[in-house]
Inverse folding.
């Protein structure tokens, strides 16, 4: 980054990278300044302190990993295509999982907890609306939204702990995504 002035976006981008690699403990002005080749004064110019940096970083994560994903998916006209694209995006890439899991590991942190709750609600509400649009009643839509979201979280954990266990090739990923989609759309079983 030498030769150009850093801005808040530069700092929060680097903070997300640090979060991915070292959890919330890695998000601090001094180590980020070293990584950016900047002075800590530059960090304090943009942020009042570590808490301000954490808040801005978590807000950026929310915008990029929830709102931007939903906006992208909304470019599809049909609900089934939106759901398929959402699954492709969130189950098809390993990198974002590490940030998500690092934030989940810090779920009790006062600057992280409210954002995690808000993101979880937003994601579940969005999924519920998709399933409702696909013809499921509100209760079934909510349950399927929870199933889809917990599938994502489980996939994230599996990708982190054993990356070789998740589908690797394009054909394998496509088959996996279609299996997940089929399971989420299957009619409810009847119990006797």
């Amino acid at each position: 980054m030498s030769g150009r002035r850093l801005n808040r976006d530069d700092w929060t981008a680097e903070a997300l990278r640090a979060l991915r690699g070292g959890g919330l403990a890695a998000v601090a002005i001094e180590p980020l300044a070293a990584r950016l080749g900047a002075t800590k004064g530059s960090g304090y110019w943009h942020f009042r302190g570590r808490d301000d940096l954490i808040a801005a970083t978590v807000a950026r994560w929310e915008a990029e990993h929830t709102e931007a994903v939903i906006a992208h998916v909304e470019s599809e006209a049909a609900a089934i295509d939106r759901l398929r694209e959402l699954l492709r995006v969130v189950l098809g890439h390993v990198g974002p999982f590490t940030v998500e899991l690092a934030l989940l590991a810090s779920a009790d942190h006062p600057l992280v907890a409210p954002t995690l709750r808000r993101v979880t609600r937003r994601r579940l509400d969005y999924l519920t609306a998709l399933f409702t649009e696909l013809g499921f009643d509100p209760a079934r839509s909510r349950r399927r939204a929870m199933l889809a979201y917990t599938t994502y979280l489980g996939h994230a954990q599996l990708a982190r702990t054993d990356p070789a266990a998740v589908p690797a090739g394009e054909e394998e990923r496509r088959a996996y995504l279609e299996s997940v989609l089929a399971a989420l759309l299957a009619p409810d079983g009847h119990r006797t």
